[in-house]
Amino acid sequence: MKGMDINMGIIQNKKAYAVFLLPALIFYIFAVFYPIEESIRLSFMKWNGIGAPKFVGLENYAAMFKDKVFYTALINNLVYLVIVVVIQLSVGLLFAILLTYMKKRVTLVKTLYYIPCIVTTVAIAQLFRSIYSTEPLGLLNQFLAGVGLEHVATSWLANVKTVLAAVSVPEGWRFIGMYMVIFYAALVSLDPSVYEAAKIDGASELQILFKIKIPLIKEILLLTLTMCLTGALRGFDIPFLLTAGGPGNASEMMSTYMYKKAFSSNQYGYGSALAVFIIIESIIVVYLLRKAFTTREDREIKQMEKAQRKQRRRVK
Amino acid sequence: MKKKTLKVIFAIVIPVFLFIQVYPVLWLFISSVRPSAELATKPFSLPTSFTFQNFAKVWSDGKILGYMWNSFKVTAISLILIVFLSATAGFALSKFKMRFNKAIYSFFTFGIMVPVQITLIPLFIFYSKAGVLNTSMSMILPQVGFALPLSVMMFVSFYSFVPNELIEAAVMDGCTPYGIFAKIVFPLARNTVITIASMYSILIWNDFIFANTFISDSKAKTVAMGLKDYVGAFGNIDWGSTFAAITISILPPMIIYFALNKWVTSGMTMGATKG
Fold first, then answer.
1. Contact at 8 Å (CB) between A297 and A225?
2. B120 and A CB contact within 8 Å
3. B86 interfaces chain A, CB cutoff of 8 Å
């Protein structure tokens, strides 16, 4: 993540270096970079899977930017991403923080919260289909009726207005526990002496939380935010299983659209152009994120080191 | 924050979220032991009678065991490869003095930005030419490839806590780089290994996208795909059997999770900084 982690080694042995590094590197290049190269190549071709691919230049990309469904999928995907990331990180962090104040049954709560991420997406999709259902009345509509909001009840997956949120929530929901466990581990692994000193100096819990604890787990936050964003950008399983992008294209994601174009319509070239777009989109998002984080991070690391030195002096 | 405020927060927030997080899964288990007829009429009330008929039905057609074996194979082989490859590569990148380390490390972490969908079309074409569609290998390759960036990153960040003096001392005692890795550094990385293994065993077992793309033969199907079959095969009528199949399929990751629970939570940094 940071240049700091690297270049600190001391062993000087080229042969051993190659033995340790090359297997992973070769595997990685073949599994990740060969497909990227092939996707780019295919995106300039027209091919239905039979015969020889025909070179068509930028035709696929031109078609893509004229394709209304492409824009629908793009916007849907961004909405999906925002819903998923907000649910996963905010609720995950909130729970991790609350959990650090809990004395008893921490393990039990953690264990229970984590369960949804162990369940396969196929099961999750099935579960939410039941929750959203109208016939028989699903859990959500039953709940709404119970609190006097019958008029809000709808067929969540068939209603064009609600379907996008309905396919986003399950994905956000299922990983809350995982992010909570990661954040909790990071928070409890902090050296108590750092914030004990601040406490002695009269800092409130909230100050300690936002000024000391959260900045200290920034690296984990970046790691999880990256995980979370790339997870949401690849958002496929649950939308595909729940609605397959429907009704119409109301819940179409970039990846479900790509999948359909390639494997249902056999338009491998056009599908590849969409795949290339997905990769560019992901890279831009993560790059911007990383940029934003590192500049701020560097500044804060310096500040923190100063603060720590001060605290140490005070403790002495 | 005052103690009372905290208590109120716990009293309200924790149960509400516990309900949201846990009830749906619990409902899944309850539904699997509920007679199908009852499930159709009042699915959300507590069952009035328990039955294992649903399980018996799913078990007797015998497909689920095969699906689970396929999932197990893919998960186990992938995990071994992920841990082995990222532990060694991470070691090379953080404990060797080489000029290209930084560039290679960036090259690995670049993979985090790459969405898995990019592999589907090229690998599908490659596999069908090579005749390896419908094999475990077809799923293992992308699983491992896409797990490497994050796991290499985790190992590098762990190794950065292993003091260079320790390695220097070992070198002076005549220890080879292989010995340093096998006897000193890797054993220290136990928490990182378990963190990675537990995370990826869940993600790989649950994989749907690779299985759905590369597997069509029911002999090679993994359990996630198999569940989709069950849903289809039983139509919209026999929910009980579907839920029973789901319950069976999520037991192995549950067992693994409950067994490794304390390792996941102990986290990778703790063992490193204090060990």
1. no
2. yes
3. yes
Please check whether residue A25 is in contact with residue A17, taking contact to mean a CB–CB distance below 8 angstroms: no
CATH class of A74-315: mainly alpha
In a domain? residue B37: no
User: What per-residue confidence (pLDDT) applies to B274?
Assistant: 25
| CATH number for the domain harbouring residue B101 | 1.10.3720.10
Taking only the tens place, the pLDDT of each residue in B83-141 is 999 999 999 999 888 888 889 999 998 887 788 888 999 999 999 999 999 999 999 99
For residue A17, the Cα-to-chain-centroid distance in whole angstroms is 33
User: In a mutagenesis test of the A interface, which of B121, B133, B212 is the best target, namely the one with the most A β-carbons within 10 Å?
Assistant: B121
Which ranges of chain A have pLDDT less than 50?
1-5
The domain total for chain B is 1
* Residue A214 CB-half CA count within 13 A: 13
Instruction: Verify cis geometry, omega within 30 degrees of 0, for the bond prior to A247.
Output: yes
The single-letter code of the amino acid at A49 is G
Flag whether B3 is in a domain.
no
Which chain A residues are Cβ-neighbours of B64 within 8 angstroms? none
**Could you tell me which chain A residue has the CA closest to the CA of B264?**
A181
Distance, CA of B29 to CA of A55 (rounded, Å): 53
Interval A226-281: pLDDT, tens: 778 877 877 888 999 998 887 888 999 999 999 999 998 899 999 999 999 988 88
Q: Is A248 left (phi over 0), alpha (psi -120 to 50) or beta?
A: left
Helices (H), B111-238: 117-130, 136-159, 164-172, 177-179, 186-188, 190-205, 209-214, 223-233
Q: Is B123 on the interface with A (CB under 8 A)?
A: yes
